[in-house]
Write a structure and sequence with these properties.
transport; about 50% helix; elongated; mainly alpha
Length: about 80
């Protein structure tokens, strides 16, 4: 009565390969290859990411300081009020 979930459709020309969990290593060479690879990738991307972020931070901080400066009243405008 109906097909089971794994056999709902017939798929042709698709080949899949798998390796037994008992034959593969979870973290092979993590210290000898993995850590240096992370360092190399980080070093290659630093010059692409840091300058735009630093420029954006400088523009943001300048804009905030300028806003706070312009928000204050000029004391010279109120010297002769009395």
């Amino acid at each position: 009565m109906g097909k089971h979930f794994g056999n709902l459709a017939r798929v042709r020309h698709v080949i899949s390969y798998s390796l037994s969990p008992f034959e593969q290593q979870a973290f092979p060479n993590i210290l000898s290859h993995g850590v240096p690879n992370v360092g190399r990738r980080f070093a290659s991307q630093v010059l692409k990411v840091v300058p735009p972020l630093a420029l954006g931070y400088l523009i943001y901080s300048w804009g905030t300081q300028e806003f706070e400066r312009l928000k204050r009243k000029n004391p010279a405008d109120y010297e002769h009020d009395q």
